[in-house]
Amino acid sequence: MAQTYLLPEFETEQREKPVNVASVPQRSPFRYPGGKTWLVPLFRRWMMSLPNQPAILVEPFAGGGIISLTAAFEQLADHIVMVELDGQISSVWKTILGGDADWLAKRILSFELTPESAKEEFAKEVRSQRELAFQTILKNRTAHGGILAEGAGVLKRGENGRGILSRWYPQTIAKRITNIKFVSRRIEFIQGDAFEQLKRFGKDRNAVFFIDPPYTAGGKSAGSRLYTHCEVDHERLFSICEELRGDLLMTYDNADEVRALAARHGFETKAVAMKNTHHAEMNELLIGRDLSWTEAGGVFREHRSPYRVSESKQTKKQRKR
Ligand SMILES: C[S@@+](CC[C@H](N)C(=O)[O-])C[C@H]1O[C@@H](n2cnc3c(N)ncnc32)[C@H](O)[C@@H]1O
What we know:
The protein is α/β, with parallel strands linked by helices and 321 residues long. The protein contains twelve helices and nine strands.
């Protein structure tokens, strides 16, 4: 039996409201570049710091959607609006939230993945949204870094030499998809432009916004390799955010240019150093009007728990994204 550590959210929690500790549940079927699973504990804290539970949470750059899913499962907002421009990613959300979750789950479970079957599948002309959704999940789970943008190669060696199979966990992915079905009535998905939707909900005092755009500000090019849609007018985005009536939380690269941009628009910034479960050091920036809620616990690094739990090899494998 392999042993592993449970990762608690923060070492010190001085909250008035109860917080759901322990490791962050992986709820997204995607393995998403720039995914915000590591931010979930902070996101929860932000939501709980608001005077009332928001009627609407808008996530205008939804991608793999872990923040929206967390809000839906943990009932942190009454209604969730996910917005994404990318057609491939949108097909997955539309399929899952639009009544075809079971079809997609079954399709994943019945697919025999080999390098040849994947190649055959990618060469197929898709005729429906749900077929595109399946192709997208397959691509996301077999491409280097989960990258769906043009030019990403297929995993050859992968984890432990498992090659193309190293991120293909059909049972786990199918389960996540069917689970989402149960919270789908809380979630509205819009394939569209983040800017338009920010304006649409901007005057609503009961709407709050989690904003995680592609990182191409400050001359950074990472975002342009990861996403098909990576051109964002960051100055304009900040101007729109200034006008939002409801509260907001943004995440960006911790770059000088971004901090200057935030300061110009009257926002506070806070750098977050976070070790994720794969021990990669994240260095990102939280941006908001008032980030004093981040001080409540004070520690922004996941620490190992003083206790350990046993975990079977199978569970351990499945837990990996
Ligand atoms: C940093 S990723 C979001 C990652 C997400 N927070 C997660 O945890 O998976 C940014 C996303 O914004 C999308 N995007 C880029 N421009 C957009 C636009 N104008 N409107 C809506 N979505 C856009 C990209 O396709 C990409 O999926």
